Protein 1
Amino acid sequence: MKVLIADDDRDLLELIAFTLSQAGFLAVKAVDGSAALTLFESEGPDLVVLDINMPGASGFKVCETIRAQSAVPIMMLTARNEEEDLVRSLELGADDYLTKPFSPRTLLARIKALLRRAGMENSGPLASGRIKLNVEDHTVQIGAAAAVRLTKLELRLLQMLLVNAGRTVGSDRLLVHIWGHRNSGDRQLLKQLVHRLRQKIEQDPSLPQILQTATGAGYKLVVE
Amino acid sequence: MKVLIADDDRDLLELIAFTLSQAGFLAVKAVDGSAALTLFESEGPDLVVLDINMPGASGFKVCETIRAQSAVPIMMLTARNEEEDLVRSLELGADDYLTKPFSPRTLLARIKALLRRAGMENSGPLASGRIKLNVEDHTVQIGAAAAVRLTKLELRLLQMLLVNAGRTVGSDRLLVHIWGHRNSGDRQLLKQLVHRLRQKIEQDPSLPQILQTATGAGYKLVVE
DNA sequence: CCGGCCTGTAACCGATTTATAACCGGGTCG
DNA sequence: CGACCCGGTTATAAATCGGTTACAGGCCGG
């Protein structure tokens, strides 16, 4: 599990990196905003920790840029008097925040919670009922049928639904989880993606048994 | 999603309640500490917002009492120069704090983050008497009957009535909660919506047993 | 360079949902 | 009585939603 950390306070940066690596994470360090963006591209981390006050590009700017292209979980770090930027970050799609000073223990707990919520805690096969999703090689197996290959987006959709198997997941949450914060008017994208996924996993795509619609609310996965 | 708000400043209380209800939350208001505790018991909110300075029982006391029996997320409100108070609050188990004055936008962002963090972003079914409202997938179940699907507006109406089950809710409050502010000529909309909802949930829509009219005042839900 | 898949975008359809208006009947009050 | 106000009902128009088909650009491997 790879975590990108960006903070211009070297001491704090090292402390966080140490804490995380002790907990089994692979820490990637950046000392300013532009470095953070470069490293984000090249390393493809599973989670990002951003300080708001940074030279180069502010954490706020970095958050916005990352969110425009990825749905990776983002945690913001903020001093007590940076309320306004914090709120802007949250509205732009940051997932959580921590106010300085904080204890390493707290940081760790929050990061784990964030990963759990994003359904990224275990990279192994994710199964529920008769649906077995193999995240590694992008395949699903339903019942005794042959495994089907999924695209990146289909995988993310099915992953989110499978984590909440049996319960309805709102369209907004799906949009954020799959694409990050693009313009929210993109119901079209979700419509398409659901349609394409149904073609692959439903016996009769016109009468969905597995990926069902909750009209006006979202979609849900029916296992067994 | 039900939120209990406790503040002895009536104006602020109303402002917060209005902000939250516009955002789709159900606001339950308390003007002092003991009222807050009573309402906490009876309403079972998903989140609590507490002012520290209150007559009756202080925010501390309330926070402590609630925490002794529940893990519900708690957000404290504090005046700017009461740093010690907020430290004490956090030690007592509050999850976050906000210093006055704050903007509604900030409050909303923080509350959303808090709910996300607590993994409570989707509240379980909201039930009272024989009525069980499943907010997630827009359905109600009454008694042993089959679940009925509701539209967005019907859901909001029933939600508001269910929170105030047994009590009459004024037409104005319903209008504001469901549509947000509109020109007041819109009694027609409410009339329609009530009618459609009755068709769905009443055994005999012409003799309403559940969604009853309080002539000249509003509507109320009879749950027994 | 070609042909495949993956993704985003648009357009169309039918169904549902929401807004607007008109009509009905009871009750109130001058 | 008759002019209202109120709530219920019916009817109809407008907007939105979800499913579907079609197509274009990007990307990648042959």
Protein 2
Amino acid sequence: MNYKDDIIEQIYNILDGKIEKENIIVEKPKDRKMADYAIPCFSFSKILRKSPIVIAEELKDKIEGYEKVEVVNGYLNIFLKKKDTIKEIVKDIIEKKDSYGNKKTKNKNIVIEYSSPNIAKPFGVGHLRSTVIGEALKNISIKNGYNVITINYLGDYGTQFGKLIYAYLQWGNKDAMKENPIDELRRVYVKFHEEAEKNPSLDEEGRKWFKRLEDNDEYSLKLWTQFKEASLKEFEKTYNLLGINNFDSYTGEAYYKDKMQPVIDELEAKNLLEISEGATIVRLDDNIVPALIKRSDGGSLYVTRDLAAVFDRKNNYKFDKALYVVGNEQTLHFEQLKKIVEKMGYDFYNDICHINFGLVLQNGKKMSTRQGRSVKLHDVLVETIDLAYKYIDEKNPTLDNKDEIAQIVGVGAVIFNDLKNYRCNDIEFNIEDILRFEGNTGPYIQYTYARIMSLLEHKKNIKLDYEKLVINEYEWNIIFKLYEFNDAIEAAYENFDPSIIAKLLLDIAQDFNKMYANVKIISDDANNTEFVLSICEATSIIIKEGMRLLGIKVINKM
RNA sequence: GUCUUGGUAGCUCAGCAGGAUAGAGCAAUGCCCUUCUAAGGCAUCGGUCGGGAGUUCGAAUCUCUCCCAAGACACCA
């Protein structure tokens, strides 16, 4: 049962419906000793023309089904019946296992575009964010009952490839290309931008080569294909480490190259196009700068391709929502995209959602491949896994699958570090933070899980006698947190924010470890032991499932 | 310059559809493994919630204004 809803319902009825249900606020007090739920009655006094205390006193005697109801400073403080509540929640979780918290099927399709690394560039820590947030949102959306289609919209097209082809032809080294294609391509790309600083006419060369690529020039196409294949091979290593490799589609930007013209024609037919300074634009509202559809030389641009993509996806997947997990810096781009779709007369523009996230900064500034400032994700993962291995070797040297565990812990640390904070905040890239396995970290939660699994080996599955139990505050705190998992799943979807789940898991792990340190779990009292172990089991189910939603594995021993 | 985010403990961040003494982690200091995994727990230290004004019974939370930082702003994506 939902306690909050029940309390609201009761108060609504007691006050004869004079206070709207949405105005009855049920809070969770910061300090659980004050109450399990609290209702501030201040706002009722204007309508009922009585003091909050008088109202609270009236309500106090009429609310039924709870352990205790108190009035303090105008708050109505409600205490749940501990044993009944625990029994109900623990039983529910253990029965449902990892399906606990699953929401009803919505019969709606969600397309999520995420990860989207750029071909011919290293898979940098910047792309980690999109990858990891997108993956979590996929899991969270499915948990909430949506059908999900995932798209890895590879950055495999655009003027940058013209620049790259030109740069490779100018300064490229075939042997180096064979040896380590990504590094070689990065080298010439950085070189191009250095040279272009001195000699802006190089940009013109880049555009020329991209135009050739768009016009299906055989030589350009051959190089482009070579770059792309080498990159994908390289990315696969990183995806394998992260445990992410199941996109429904890998259609990159290039896929849309022959799908842009119909959209341009439609824009033309709807009289939305305009020529300005030689380029073709769509003029939007006064507060948004016009969107460039075609360059002066006829070449396509980012918006052009995204426009083609959004219609293609609407047709193919009949999406009810399209999520774009793309960084903050592209906010304007998506505003323009939505606005154009709206101007074209389609009302699904509202279903286009830019799931923005903060930048990965280095020394307070944006990382940039162009300026050679970027850190390879693969290197970071390897470093973290190595450190995890050292920990294991030191703390539990007899474990037999150390490599596997080190990988799960190391990768978990990296992913959790990214997901634990609100996604829109910028992150200062700090390898020390990632390499920390104590406190608010992924390994802390994984460790907690391993502890629980070790305890559960003592579980005998005997029938509990609830009458004999004495509940302590540690147990009670955990149960209440476990119960919040349901709400967290919905909130994480509604806000498209995985950190809501990450924070709850930290809370749960913390409460568990407090209990672990203060309560003797395996004791002579078989009934009580079994009871606490059932709480442990419920906790382990929530931690495992919550971590799975975040894209992180747990292990039984570490 | 315009627009968008953000400014909470030394550091990284929670809290923000207003509510009871502002919370974690890290760092620092001191405790706790003959007992269930010390990647843990406990304690101490640490804050005029960027400045100012307003709205109200009540503001870290809402409004305005100023300061600071980052990002975006026509032929990159």
